Amino acid sequence: MQKPSEKASTYTENAFAAIKLTIIVTLVATPLNMIFGIAAAWAVTKFEFPGKNLLITLIDIPFAVSPVISGLIFVLVFGLQGWFGEWLYAHNIKIIFTEYGIILATIFVTFPFIARELIPLMQEQGSEEEYAALMLGANIWQIFFKVTLPNIKWGLLYGLILCNARAMGEFGAVSVVSGHIRGETNTVPLHVEILYNEYNFAAAFAVASILAVLGIITLIIKNLLELKIRKQTH
Amino acid sequence: MAIEIENISKTFGSFKALNNLSLIIPEGKLTALLGPSGSGKTTLLRIIAGLETPDNNPDSDIRFNGQSVAERHARERGVGFVFQHYALFRHMSVFDNIAFGLKVKPWRSRPSRSEIKDKVSELLKLIQLEGIGNRMPSQLSGGQRQRVALARALAVEPKFLLLDEPFGALDTKVRQDLRNWLRKLHDELHITSLFVTHDQEEALEVSDKVVIMNKGRIEQEGSPEEVFHNPATEFVMNFIGHVNLFHGRLEKGKAVFGKIVIDAADVPADKLGKDARLFIRPFEMEISSLNAEGSIKAKVERIQAAGVSVKVELKSEDGKVFTAELTHERFRELQLVKDMEVFVSPRNTRIFVEDYQV
Question: Any idea of the CA torsion for B202, B204, B209, B212, to the nearest 10 degrees?
Fold first, then answer.
């Protein structure tokens, strides 16, 4: 049996570990999804290639499928009994029940947010400015950083905020792949669930309120951005 | 420097946008590519620029001043391109838009900051927009935007200037002004230029040479006077200016179009009895109150006197409706009113019979 003071400090430690993990997951997943999202939107809107419609459909899959199923698919692919399970075990790589699994699941679930935000915007803007830059001698990087990126920056920021909010709050897919190891693979939403299931309501609500505040801040920034975007387009 | 285009075809799916087309764009001249939408004129322009690749064909080639550029990337062709909807960089000021081409040069050939500034001021002066360098494109009128787009293309000193429907998105008055301005600018710079338009008036008024395209082929090329007065094909006749069309038949020594009979002494025997089409320009219709030989009787249906000339809609005895154009003076002389009976005779006619022209 732990003494009450020790117990309290373990609680604090576990809560901090959960917050830390959530921040790490978000900091890894959001920038990666920014790159994937821009690449996907750029490919879909500025180029013609076979399989384009298939790619657009693939982008939507994380929205269409329940996150729990996404989590289970990760277990199916990377779990010990999964397709790559033996190979991963032989090479001493652990994905399921580790932070890596959580990061992968989060990236998958939040993938559409940025691409879906950028595709209609870039479609509406068309490719003429890019062609104009090309005719003026700009190379592909100059075209992207000097023409495309400045044109989509507000839409991109909006997508980043939504992606970030979802990455912090993702529960379903992460719950399946995490294994709920306290202090190790517990994110904030999972930690809230554990505390709640243990009838530790005060702690559960305390941690939940952190998430809620983060959510409200996100909404405020989102609305400010919407105003800004509307002013820019009209 | 001239542009030579040889045996270029372009197919989009099953649609043949360009059909084995060859053309020479003369050096230092302003050439117009004229045609209805879907004739392939913009596709040709984009192929010259390198924005579109032609169908693979060993005989095809594009040469700039004798040098093949078919394999060269659009970026390296040294061509200035002005887009129909300006395509100005919306997040950059007018200054930065014009300076863009200079700023993206590799550092070895990039001019210094002050050189760029001088160049941009010089161009702003050329397009008569001094002092608006720090405005954003959204704060400019359509005509101003088009001029900025032109300055931006000229900043990198291209060998050729290609313009895609440069005045297409502007209203009539601005169009007219900008058209004259472009002509004057070209007379100053003498840069080999090619512009696409569907507006025949614009093409005839501004250019040194007109190339008329239809269905991916060239129908006729020549000076504006040539294509206007000597249209080579029925399509050109129809496309350039207004025209009255009469259907008829070739007979021995003559072509008969209802009451209009035209002498055609040397009709080949195998063309006899063939359907023929008679084209008469409205301003080449002579209206008279007296019945002369070869004239047809017609009734005035409608008079439109607001304009440089008076347009009169007439209906012949056999019910054919056509128009005639006459000067205000002649109109007053004749004292034309609605439902009045007059006699009409063509001053100049063109007859087309399948691949044969009388």
Answer: 80
What chain B residue is nearest to A150 in terms of C-alpha separation? B91
- What pLDDT digit, counting tens, does each position of B232-267 carry? 888 999 898 888 988 888 887 788 887 788 877 677
Q: Tell me the whole-structure pTM to 2 decimals.
A: 0.81
Q: A43 CA to chain B: closest CA distance, Å?
A: 17
Say yes or no for a CB contact (<8 Å) between B104 and A138: yes
ipTM for this model: 0.82
Indicate whether B298 and B187 sit together in one domain.
no
Same domain, B43 and B157: yes
* Same domain membership, residue B275 and residue B219: no
**Interface residue of A124, A131, A135 to substitute, partner B, most B CBs within 10 Å:** A135
Residues B78 and B166 reside in one and the same domain: yes
Q: Which pLDDT tens digit goes with each residue over A9-58?
A: 777 888 888 889 999 999 999 999 999 999 999 999 988 889 888 999 99
Beta-carbon separation of B51 and A129 below 8 A: no
Domain that holds residue B288: 244-357
If asked whether residues B84 and B210 sit together in one domain, one would say yes
The verdict on B187 and B335 lying in the same domain is no
The CATH number linked to B280 is 2.40.50.140
Domain boundary residue, one of B200, B232, B264: B232
76-115 in chain B: CB under 8 A from chain A: 79-81, 83, 85, 87-92, 100-101, 104-105
- Flag if B75 and A150 touch (Cβ within 8 Å): no
Task: Give domain status of residue B228, yes or no.
Answer: yes
- Cβ-defined contact of B104 to A128 (cutoff 8 Å): no
Query: Cβ contacts of residue B311 below 8 Å, gap of 6+?
Result: B282, B303, B304, B323, B324, B325
Percent of chain B with pLDDT over 70: 98
The reply to whether residue A135 touches residue B51, judged by beta carbons under 8 angstroms, is yes
Give which of B186, B212, B209, B187 is closest to B200, Cα–Cα: B212
> pLDDT digits over B152-174, tens only?
999 999 999 999 998 887 888 88
